[in-house]
Specification:
The structure is a single chain. The protein has 128 residues and is of the alpha+beta class. Helix content is 16%, strand content 38%. Strand 7 and strand 8 form a beta hairpin. The radius of gyration is 15 Å and the shape is globular. The termini are far apart.
Length: 128
């Protein structure tokens, strides 16, 4: 098998594994991944409504980090510019961080893992 085929297969499998580990209901507010056939892939997903009292959880993942990485710092930027950092931990071959934010206003919610040049962003829109 060619190395390109194996890379495409590996990215597809890690994306599928990420989707199954999110445990996000069908009514998820937003999700996005960086789309590259090789190298690191960063994903972010929300399962709550913007502007609600119960915004739900936000999950970020670095789907194919270097094998020697057990943790990584993930930088989160909320709509409105609020910034903070979390520690992602290895789970099923990925680095994953899950958190429950406060009320999220409309706008972009982004995640960038330290050690990766890619940033994943979702557009939060209040549909209530």
């Amino acid at each position: 098998m060619s190395s390109r085929f194996l890379r495409v297969l590996a990215v597809g499998l890690t994306a599928a594994a990420f989707a199954t580990t999110l445990d996000v209901p069908a009514h998820a507010a937003a999700s996005a991944c960086t789309h590259h056939l090789s190298g690191p892939q960063v994903c972010i997903s929300t399962d709550g409504a913007a502007g609600s009292e119960n915004p739900g959880k936000v999950t970020t993942a670095w789907t194919n980090p270097p094998q020697d990485r057990r943790t990584a710092t993930v930088h989160i930027t909320e709509p409105g510019g609020q910034r903070y950092t979390l520690t992602a931990r290895r789970s099923h071959g990925q680095l994953v961080a899950v958190f429950t934010p406060g009320t999220l206003p409309d706008g972009k919610l982004c995640a960038r893992y330290q050690g990766s040049s890619r940033t994943a962003c979702v557009q939060i829109i209040d549909r209530t």
